[in-house]
Design goal:
heterodimer; A: 120 residues; mainly alpha; 4 helices; 82% helix; B: 94 residues; antiport (chain A); sodium:proton antiporter activity (chain A); membrane (chain A); transmembrane helix (chain A); PhaG_MnhG_YufB (chain A)
């Protein structure tokens, strides 16, 4: 009984860590200079934070109820698979609709590649 | 102890959602807003999970799956609209 409560406190602490990671990604989305860096902060930080929260909730219900919850496991796998894909798609749409990079960014490798393809 | 920690987690998620709402309101371009809305959807998934732990019920776990699917489909539709101007292409090019 004591063991179970200790485990649940540990899982609640993991929930707080995931929420802190989400807060860090929100600060990155507010402070970073252009679309691409903001996308980098939002898709990676929010995905990691939500994966921590969902897995600790999954373990919490496992310890509390005694059996695994397949719906939550499916949700974890789905978020882990689709959030980076969504970030990639919106970033590519932003580049192709002509939104410029930050003026201090070092190089634009995709632009050179596209020029080469067009000249062929 | 557990409920205090879970409430702290909800509070932090709410503050980060406020940050994303700031980016939705201010963001200079459309992809900024779409990115922030996607992140708000992901935060909502986390809030639903924490709330279902606080209430000690398993009734809301389908909502998590559903919100994930809806956020993904919405982002894909918006990015297709931004890139090509249409979401579903009807005309055949043959």
């Amino acid at each position: 009984m004591k063991m179970k409560e200790n485990l649940e406190v540990i899982f609640a602490a993991i929930v707080v860590i995931g929420a802190i990671i989400n807060l860090i990604s929100a600060i990155g989305v507010i402070r970073l200079p252009d679309v691409y860096t903001r996308n980098h902060a939002a898709s990676k930080g929010a995905t990691l934070g939500i994966l921590l929260i969902l897995s600790s909730v999954f373990l919490f219900f496992w310890v509390e109820e005694g059996y695994m919850n397949a719906r939550l496991l499916l949700g974890i796998i789905f978020v882990f698979m689709t959030a980076p894909v969504a970030g990639h798609l919106i970033s590519r749409a932003a580049y192709n609709s002509g939104i410029p990079l930050w003026e201090k960014s070092g190089q634009d490798a995709l632009k050179a590649t596209k020029q080469k393809v067009k000249n062929k | 102890m557990i409920s205090i920690l879970l409430n702290i987690g909800l509070l932090l998620l709410s503050v980060s959602t406020l940050g994303f709402v700031y980016r939705v309101v201010k963001g200079p371009t459309t992809p900024d807003r779409v990115i922030a809305l996607d992140a708000i959807g992901i935060n909502l998934i986390g809030m639903t999970a924490i709330t279902s732990v606080i209430l000690r019920t398993e009734a809301f776990l389908e909502v998590i799956l559903l919100l994930g699917i809806l956020a993904f489909i919405g982002t894909v539709a918006f990015s297709k609209f931004l890139e090509k101007g249409v979401i579903i292409e009807n005309e055949r090019k043959s």
